């Protein structure tokens, strides 16, 4: 019966093992779907979106297209999670990435969406200020609604003021405010509103007054001031600023701004009719702009060189520079065409990225349902297995009870017989103890007689005492050891087998038994009929024969452990 039960348990064990393997494979597949090169485990939409936004931020300057992909995917996840704070951050990153790849329409759409979220929910003012600043840049460089750009620049300033919650906002956000004032000043320069331009450009330089070292915004602002002052006839101030900008940009190897500064230097020289010097500065500016492939600057500088060459009667040079103007315009047209094509490609990429994120979440959901289904199926299988096992256990229990009943009857009979045997052994043991006690008394009497014997001086008296001693020795019971050995050997057969391998005499084996029972020398003397001194001598010889030369080893303890060592 036990073998059948064991076989059934093993069968169910292997079934359960197969089930758990299936569950593990399903969970592993689900985990692989969610890894995507990042942290695995349970698909957490918010954590995944945060990881994507961090990746977008780190790739914004070096790889804006990759940053745009991460931002779009983060936006989909944030909408699915209904997390407006995360969504606003995703829209902001998407707008910035779109701006860097040249998709100004998409940038404006994303940034307006972010602005609406932050405005409606009273969001982070600092973040709102950055969104306004980015929106202003989009409207400014898109070529339409310049008034909207100025409005958003002013809103950005107000947002930074609210974010600082102090009058020292110009110190806390000096870099941001300097860029905003500089951009506003440049816009007023383009509109030839010079008084307003000077106001904002001066505020930009004031905001950066505490910053040491080179700053690109500061250099660009000074160039804009040069343009204003030269237009207003303040050539000395303009020339002084240009010297500072040329020195700083050359030292920092900022060749784009250096070419712009060279161009304005040429314009100043042209205004004062130093045409040859102006021509040289224009050529230097053109060379650096071509090296940096800034085609808008190339177009502007080449056109100025063409006009100056005409004034200097260099018709061939003027014609060459006009051709260069056409070449720069062709480059700009190709760039615009490529940008228009990239916008179409971006729309396709948006759909592709959104589908990737959606399919990833759908796969996660499907795998989750699969796991739930397998878990439910596993539960049903476990329940059926449990019912089957319980039935088998009940049948086995009935059979076991029947067999136990028979065993108990046999055990009862065995116990009864064992009890009778034990009773008999106890009676024999009591009898042995009584006889041992009598022998002990005889030994004590003999010892006292021997003491008297030594003190009696006459021979006749000694003979009488010797006769009494012999009579007492004759009445001693010398069969005690044989009967004791029979009883002890019945219950300690392993010990006697261990002694048999040591080459001991019968008297030595008998002494080993007494010592293993932890009997005193006096008790052994009573059993054997020997004197206590003879017993001590026998103990010493036994130790020597067993090789126990170390006096720290107790002979009784050694004999207690003898059976375990032999086993």
UniProtKB/TrEMBL annotation:
GO terms for biological process: regulation of DNA-templated transcription. Residues 336-363 form a coiled coil. Residues 501-559 form the HTH luxR-type domain. TPR repeats lie at residues 178-211. This is HTH luxR-type domain-containing protein. InterPro entries: Sig_transdc_resp-reg_C-effctor, TPR-like_helical_dom_sf, TPR_rpt, Tscrpt_reg_LuxR_C. Residues 1-31 form the signal peptide. The chain crosses the membrane at residues 366-389. One of its GO terms (molecular function) is DNA binding. Keywords: Coiled coil, Membrane, Signal, TPR repeat, Transmembrane, Transmembrane helix.
